[in-house]
Specification:
Low-confidence stretches: 133-139, 539-581
Number of helices: 17
Number of strands: 15
Strand order of the largest sheet: 2-1-3
Helix content: 25-40%
Largest sheet: 3 strands, antiparallel
Radius of gyration: 27 Å
Oligomer: single chain
Shape: globular
Mean pLDDT: 88
């Protein structure tokens, strides 16, 4: 079979990994993914970030096939229509030539004829993200990946446009940006800038519809076209970037890279990859709905403009519920305190979901799952250090813009957890200092244990919030749960303190020297915990449960002891600069 006759039609060939509602795994074509969306639980790609990239591809197809939805009424009709995704099938038939991975002139998401000056072909680890460059020992494909099938190659092409690394790449012929055979850093692919957020339904059908934001929420009026309805990309950047992205179809299929797969009859054995269309992440909150945004004072000073918002990245060490604040923060730049721009903007997707609640299209009590995605880059963004994903679930009423009291309560409760865990970390640090150690490792270990112990309880508390709940009672309930959990961990730390810590030593605090031992460290901890969780009803039985020393201070501190510590000597506690929670 000659090169010109090879084909791999993504509309007909299976290439998208899915988990079905009956628990089986399968691999489907684009047509099958839309036709069977009601019996697909979720996508199940090679990496979580691949799921994010593939979902955005499916959304671009659906937006273009429907040419909408235009507004929330159109969306409501789709939500009720069991055949809402059916228009995607004739649409794929119409554009099937542009979904051929091996098309001789317009291969899917590639640049035909892309070549270097020396006609070099590079290993597939340049696009296969589970084979990290320079770390071949950390993959099951050691020493590298020499060949993959067409289906897997298609997935990694989509992923590269979303999450490829930065760094110096090989220059290609015809790209005016190339200098001496090199293409200089342009940043990671677009989705690599984002702390990605998707609304996840019970099936792929629900997931696609929940994330199908109506056109009247997009401010741009320019023609919004996906990559396959634009002319095939050449080796340089596109000419019309100043007017783009034009909308979700354009953005979800943004050609961040120029790629050409090298194939034979058995599969793909090499690749040429370089930079494609640049897209600066500043102030794209009107175009990109699937990330939160943070105000950057440093960028404002550098650029001489205000405000400047950058995408909020995902921290792999921080569970999604701990970052729930940006999901329910102000939804517009002018909603900050005292006329200042808001410090954070929640994702446009979350604003869309809140709109569905406000207009009573979805019930207020519907449980909403938000799944987060992120890639952490290292060494000047030239390698992927970590990939992270998490899910947080809560009733839609938490996102309400008509009455934000429950949303604020959820945010405040996460802050309560941070303060309580900070107190636990201070206890671990004080115990270590009492024993003569200046290491910060005990604090970090205690904080990890504290957040780990609160993770399940907070998720259950959050998922249990319902319309009509009293915010004050909800927060008091959470503080009682958090106090009981963190106090128990404190008991365990005190019980494990050695004889040297019990004896103690003189340390220097904010107001001079003081004697620090296990008893004083425990008493200070109880006072800090009481200040952090002031709504919690004292529960000496619960607080004193678990193993612990027999001294009165290490037993659950009585109310008088706590008040005495606060009033008399708390200010003399060692208080080194605290790491942010």
């Amino acid at each position: 079979m000659s090169d010109g006759e090879k084909t791999f039609d993504l509309t007909e060939q299976p290439w998208i990994p899915v988990l079905l509602t009956d628990g089986r795994e399968s691999e489907l074509s684009l047509r099958e993914a839309f036709a069977q969306a009601g019996r697909i639980r979720r996508l199940a790609g090679d990496l979580p970030t691949q799921d994010f990239a593939l979902t955005r591809l499916l959304l671009a197809i659906l937006h273009d096939a429907l040419d909408g939805p235009g507004d929330s009424d159109d969306w409501a009709d789709l939500w009720e229509d069991p055949d809402a995704l059916a228009p995607a099938l004739p649409y794929l038939d119409k554009h099937r030539d542009r979904f051929d991975l091996l098309h001789p002139h317009a291969p899917f998401f590639q640049c035909a004829g892309l070549r270097t000056g020396k006609d070099e072909v590079f290993p597939l680890n340049r696009i296969v993200a589970d084979v990290p460059n320079g770390n071949a020992f950390f993959t099951a494909r050691f020493p590298g990946v020499e060949r993959i099938g067409f289906a897997e190659a298609a997935r990694w092409v989509v992923h590269a446009h979303a999450y490829d690394t930065s760094g110096i790449k090989t220059g290609v012929e015809g790209d005016p940006r190339a200098k001496a055979g090199k293409a200089y850093p342009q940043g990671p692919s677009w989705a690599g800038n984002l702390g990605g957020v998707l609304a996840e339904g019970d099936t792929l059908r629900e997931t696609l519809l929940l994330n199908l934001i109506a056109a009247d929420q997009w401010k741009t009026k320019r023609p919004d076209l996906p990559a396959w309805r634009r002319p095939p990309a050449g080796p340089g950047a596109a000419d019309d970037l100043a007017l783009r992205p034009a909308g979700p179809r354009d953005l979800y299929t943004w050609q961040s890279r120029r790629i050409r797969l090298h194939t034979d009859n058995e599969g793909v054995n090499g690749v040429v990859l370089t930079y494609g269309d640049p897209l600066a992440p500043r102030n794209k909150f009107d175009a990109e709905p699937m990330t939160g945004w943070r105000r950057s004072l440093a960028q404002e000073k550098k650029l001489g403009q205000s405000p400047v918002y950058l995408p909020r990245e995902m921290d792999p060490a921080r569970a999604a519920w701990r970052g729930i604040g940006p999901l329910i923060a102000a939804s517009a730049p002018d909603q900050g305190p005292a006329g200042e721009p808001a410090p954070e903007l929640r994702p446009g997707l979350v604003h869309w979901l809140a709109r569905l609640e406000t207009e009573r299209i979805l019930p207020r009590g519907r449980l909403m799952r938000l799944r987060t995605f992120g890639a952490v880059y290292g060494t000047q963004q030239s390698v992927v250090d970590e990939i992270t994903t998490d899910t947080v679930a809560f009733a839609l009423i938490v996102l309400s813009e008509r009455d934000s009291s429950l949303g604020r309560t959820a945010q405040d409760a996460a802050g309560d957890a941070d303060l309580a865990v900070r107190a636990l970390g201070d206890l671990a640090s004080d115990l270590a200092r009492a024993a003569g150690s200046e290491s910060d490792a005990p604090r970090a270990s205690a904080r990890d244990a504290g957040f780990g112990a609160l993770d399940g309880p907070y998720r259950l508390w959050l998922a249990g919030i319902r319309d009509g709940d009293d915010p004050a009672e909800l927060r008091a309930l959470w503080q009682r749960q958090a106090r009981q959990t963190v106090a128990r961990l404190g008991d365990e730390l005190v019980a494990q303190a050695g004889d040297v810590a019990w004896q103690g030593r003189i340390v220097t605090g904010n107001k001079g020297e003081t004697w620090l031992n296990t008893s004083s460290a425990d008493l200070w901890f109880r006072a800090r915990l009481r200040r952090a969780l002031s709504l919690a009803v004292p529960d000496t039985a619960a607080e004193g449960s678990g193993p612990g020393p027999t001294s009165p201070q290490a037993d659950s501190a009585g109310q008088a002891d706590v008040e005495a510590a606060e009033a008399e000597n708390l200010d003399t506690a060692p208080d080194p600069e605290r790491a942010p929670a």
